[in-house]
Each structure stands twice: as C-alpha cells, then as structure tokens.
Design a protein that fits this description.
Elements: E1 6-10, E2 15-19, H1 22-25, E3 45-46, H2 59-70, H3 90-113, H4 120-137, H5 148-171
Antiparallel strand pairs: 1-2, 1-3
Length: 174
C-alpha cells in the first residue's frame, strides 16, 4: 500500500517538506503531532497533498501562499479532482471570499423567509423542496425538523468567519 505524505510549508525558511502522518506510523495514535521545520524549528503549515512549492527565492509567491493559508485556503483533496479553485493573487482571494460571503447571504435570506413546517406532511414537503438548504445546516434534516433559527445561526456564523478572513487579508498589506 502506498502512503502519501503531507506537504508542509515553512513560511520563514520558504521551504517545504513532506511528512508522513502519525496514523501512518502508528495506527492506534489518537492525536496528531505538530510539524516543526527541521531548519528553523517553527511550526509548519499543513498545505495538503496537492501543494506545489514555489521556488525558494520567489518572495511574492511565498507571500501569496502565506495569504492563502492565513484565510484557510489549502491544497487538500481526496486526490480525484484536485483541491478546487485556488485564487492566484491577493485581489482574487478578496474577490473569492466576497463571492462566498454573497452566497452565504443568499442562504441566510432563505432561512429568514422560510415558513417552518408544522406537521409531518409539511416537513416532508419542505424536505423535498429545500433538501439542499436543510442538509447544509443539519445532516439529520430528513429525520428531524430544522428550525429557522438554527439555519439563521448557522449562516450568520459562516458569514462571520468569511468576514474575519476578509479583514485579515485586507489588513495584510502586500
């Protein structure tokens, strides 16, 4: 069996290292050990299996990779289709996060105006019509009613997370 090693980046040294996961070494391991840079000793960022390191002397690309990591964008995937969309510059990160926030706001509007089902039949119809909205908030949406307040709280939290990321990236001047 082939074991893929995670890619870790040290933004200080502008170097990357591959490292096996603790579970690959000890199947009974319950916790993960933080990866430290073998050169400077600082904690490294887990960038995912699909990460490709920029050249060591490309300060602009390393700053961009740090920006991506700071807002939670990494190169993790199952390996089937890659890590998905990765913004290519700071402006693209901001545009991407603003688009995500806009989508989350649309979901919030749904929950603010949804009529909650009052009985089993209404709940089943609601599930048939709005299953994607319901599943986003609760994986038990088919079995139990998801209240509007639960949906509102869920999307407000997600919007707040995106806004925090936007504030971080906007505060980090290039």
């Amino acid at each position: 069996m082939m074991v893929y090693k995670g890619h870790y980046a040290c933004f200080n040294c502008q170097k990357t290292f591959k490292r096996r996961h603790l579970k690959d070494v000890d199947r009974d391991a319950q916790t993960s050990v933080e990866a430290k840079c073998p050169e400077c000793g600082n904690l490294m960022a887990n960038m995912g299996l699909d990460f490709k390191s920029p050249p060591k002397n490309d300060d602009k690309q390393w700053a961009h990779i740090r920006d991506l990591y700071t807002v939670g964008i990494t190169f993790h995937s199952c390996g089937c289709s890659g890590p998905g969309y990765i913004p290519q510059d700071r402006k693209a990160i901001i545009d991407y996060l603003e688009k995500v926030r806009s989508e989350y706001m649309k979901s919030l509007v749904f929950w603010r105006y949804r009529i909650e089902p009052e009985n089993k039949k209404e709940r089943e119809l609601d599930y048939q019509k709005n299953s994607s909205h319901l599943w986003a908030v609760s994986r038990n949406a088919f079995k139990e009613t998801v209240t509007n307040q639960e949906g509102i709280n869920y999307w407000l939290k997600r919007i707040n997370e995106v806004e925090e990321r936007l504030n971080i990236i906007k505060a980090n001047k290039p």
